Amino acid sequence: MGKRIIQQARGKGGPAYRAPKRTFRYKLNYPSCTGKGVVLKLLNSPGHSAPLAKIAINKKIFFNVAVDGLKERQTIEVGGNVVSPGNILQLRDIPVGTSVCNIETVPFAGPKLVRAGGTEAKVVKNLPQGVVLLLPSKKEMLFDGKARATVGKVAAGGRLEKPIVKAGKAFYMKKAKGKLWPRTSAVKMNVIDHPFGSGRGKRIKSKIAKRNVPPGAKVGLIRPRRTGRLKK
Fold first, then answer.
1. Is 22 helix (H, G, I), strand (E, B) or coil?
2. Looking at the structure, do residues 129 and 218 belong to the same domain, yes or no?
3. By Cβ atoms counted within 10 A, which residue in 40, 106, 109, 209 is the most buried?
4. Sign of the alpha-carbon dihedral angle for 149, 151, 155, 161
């Protein structure tokens, strides 16, 4: 007798496919007020690839990604125009060539981009309609000048240099974030375990599921707009 395929099991939402609640207990955000704050503590968060900074400003606490060189009890500035690692400024106040991270896509809506360990974006141009940043993907993107960002490069840039060595470590690293690992190729499964299973060798079956099939068969391409190779 077959068992539920992985898409069904994950969709049901059992504890094996959920990240523990404590993983994402720290929410990254910027304060609504301006002024000088103090870094109370540098924290490790299993839900983030970089260390986090616990910062107090005007008797309020918020969490931000830690940048290279940030220390506990260090004073940082929210708002203003002092360009120093750890300070949170509007993009229009940051000079060209400066490294920034934890960027807002919409002013005062909270940081969304460039938050992974070791990443940074560069201020390329200051235009009347906004500020152009060079993102880690090597793509240039225009942002509102009022959007805020943290000056500096995200810490933990060398995290990928240390080898994992054991499969068990990789398993627990993924489990902490609710990620699926290891992932078995569908065509290597038995026919009772997946619609792509069985067949001698790796013969790929059609990956376009019918629109009215049940969830257990809805795998591969789901309702594609088009199929086939692009004609040049």
1. helix
2. no
3. 209
4. positive
Q: Are 34 and 80 in contact (CB under 8 A)?
A: yes
Is 121 in the same domain as 203? Answer: no
**pLDDT tens column, 51-84:** 999 999 988 999 999 999 999 999 999 988 889 9
Residues of the chain with pLDDT under 70: 1-2, 205
The verdict on residue 230 lying in a domain is no
Question: Would the pTM count as exceeding 0.85?
Answer: no
Determine the 3-state secondary structure of 62 from DSSP: strand
The residue segments making up the domain with residue 215 are 6-16+178-222
Count of structural domains, the chain: 2
The full 3-state SS of 91-109, as one line of letters, equals HHHCCCCCEEECEECCCCC
pLDDT in tens, 26-57: 999 999 888 999 999 999 998 899 999 999 99
What phi and psi values does residue 48 have, to the nearest 5 degrees? Answer: -130, 150
Instruction: Classify residue 23 as left (phi > 0), alpha (psi -120 to 50) or beta.
Output: alpha
